[in-house]
Amino acid sequence: MNLIIKLTIFLTLTLSLLLVEPVFSVRHGKWVHETVNSLASEDLVTDLPGQPEVDFHHYAGYVTVNEKNGRALFYWFYEATTNSDEKPLVLWLNGGPGCSSVGYGATQEIGPFLVNRDEHGLKNNPYSWNREANMLFLESPVGVGFSYSNTTGDYAILGDDFAAHDAYMFLQKWFLKFPSYRNRILYIAGESYAGKYIPELAELIHHKNQDPFLYIDLKGILLGNPETCDAEDWMGLVDYAWSHAVVSDETHKIIKESCDFNSNDTWSNEDCSQAVDEILRQYSEIDIYSLYTSVCTDTSDDSDDKSTLVAFRHNSKMMPRIMGGYDPCLDEYTKKFYNRPDVQKALHVSDGQDIKNWTICNLHIFRGWTDSKASVLPIYKKLIAAGLRIWVYSGDTDGRVPVLSTRYSLNSLGLTITRAWRPWYHQKQVGGWFQEYEGLTFATFRGAGHAVPVFKPSESLVFFSSFLRGESPPFSK
Ligand SMILES: *[C@@H]1O[C@H](CO)[C@@H](O)[C@H](O)[C@H]1NC(C)=O
Ligand SMILES: *[C@@H]1O[C@H](CO)[C@@H](O)[C@H](O)[C@H]1NC(C)=O
Ligand SMILES: *[C@@H]1O[C@H](CO)[C@@H](O)[C@H](O)[C@H]1NC(C)=O
């Protein structure tokens, strides 16, 4: 960067720091509120290594959610590519528990910059969801990605409730940095274990909204291959593995006869336990998150991988790390990228000297997670009654939270069908099928794994846009 440009940026930033009053400008023929506020401008990302050139602003940094214990959550926020002041705000959460929304959501799935396999930079994502909305990616809770606590004891008490409260505090404090989004329509989206996080956070927002000073204009939630109800999720996993030729009829029969997934003591039945282990053993040979793609064979380090299935087995409620899609080694590139000193400096994570240790999933969090709701279906009912838009989608080649798990879970809600099962289309092909219920839309993505947008980026963007408009996915060719 030459000196003149540096000086210009410096002056621009200094000027915006001095401005107490919001800036107004004429855009799209009317007066609009400028989004850049003095606090936000500190987080403006200006020289991210390897970043393609773009004409929208993006911001990254920390929001302190608990002063006393020193808890800070890391976010990365991309304004919409066009008309950002008119578009809604969408908070995206990945699951785990313990996995990073920046590492997965932002840089492997739906953000504007995707990690490149050459490990040296980022490539432009033509199907980025910030074409339709202002996208906010949060690493939650503390211990995930760059988010941290200065009180080590905090890491021992992580759970659903803890995560929801910190994420709520994050939103409120983030609005102080970005006041022009304070009254914006908000949606929360995410996948996997966020199937629990998201309804829980939505419920908390709904509850706190009784106080008009805290009001957040939450309009709906969007959930991909979500963990929903443990008993139904397990039944779906087992039936899916059998129906997709991963295990034998004999193994499936033993499970059907000996497993009581509604019990809190499922694994004390030896027959059940061994038969389920057989499923996991077969899945350990392939990518459980994407049955028909290859596994990554050139992982250098990560002894973590081997322990994944063990963790999966004994913390039966939990979701282990997820792997990439078409390129199963994406996790590796992502890890290298976020541990670069120049990247951490550009994202306001460290000074570039004393670097933070970033991992895509924190298995300590995953294993130590004690507070997990067995089912979020009662929350669904509450949110449906409150008039929130709830859309659930499912990549139908995922074995971890398979389409059967989601169908079993949703069926147990007993909602009235308002539009019967039918295909939805993308470029004259069947993108998947969908069914509408009173208060809920369910859709599948044909041939997509667990992290749907990795496999079906163009379809996902179209579907996301339907969700935002509150219209059915395109159902005529
Ligand atoms: C955590 O501790 C470090 C080192 O003392 C300090 O710089 C940082 O501001 C603290 N973080 C929070 C959120 O208080
Ligand atoms: C299992 O559930 C029963 C009945 O709900 C309860 O009495 C028991 O304490 C639970 N056991 C464990 C290990 O949580
Ligand atoms: C980062 O974390 C990994 C896994 O916990 C550990 O093996 C490694 O030594 C850590 N690196 C640094 C620089 O702290």
TrEMBL record:
It is found in: Secreted. Residues 1-25 form the signal peptide. One of its GO terms (molecular function) is serine-type carboxypeptidase activity. It is an enzyme of class 3 (hydrolase). One of its GO terms (biological process) is proteolysis. Belongs to the peptidase S10 family. This is Carboxypeptidase. It comes from Dillenia turbinata.
